[in-house]
Amino acid sequence: AGSTASAETLSTLSDIGVTQVYVAGGAAVVSSGVAASLQSVASVTRLFGQDRYATSLAINQQAVGTTSSEALLAYGLNFPDALAGSVLAGVRGAPMFTTPRTCVPRPILEHMSASNVEAVTLLGGEGVLSDTVRTLTPC
Predict the structure, then answer these.
(1) Phi and psi, residue 106, nearest 5°
(2) Which pTM value belongs to this model?
(3) How many helices (H) and strands (E) does the chain have?
(4) Which of 23, 66, 83, 102 has the most C-beta neighbours closer than 10 Å?
């Protein structure tokens, strides 16, 4: 990974007419240099939080807001369930939050409550997300 977006990336974004780029993660995840170089072709907004779970909340607040009565939860320290689940979340127009294995971060629960979420889908078996995630135990 370089300190700027590649020339090919910038060219492609320009060629397809991208006007807004969202950078998912803080500067430790996507460097300030990469974010700054993207500004040469589009407006850049960085979405991040104090950890990966708060970052998933920030991304969903931007992408979905409080318009869905459904939410999906995926384990935040491995990607397969979240990767596959992101397609389902997109089709349903629902937020997909990442969580630890044994609880749901309180800010995510507060957002789901404010959004009047009525249905929660867990992505992965009990070996990935424990029963305490199913019961929405806060952490």
Answers:
(1) -50, -45
(2) 0.86
(3) 6, 5
(4) 23
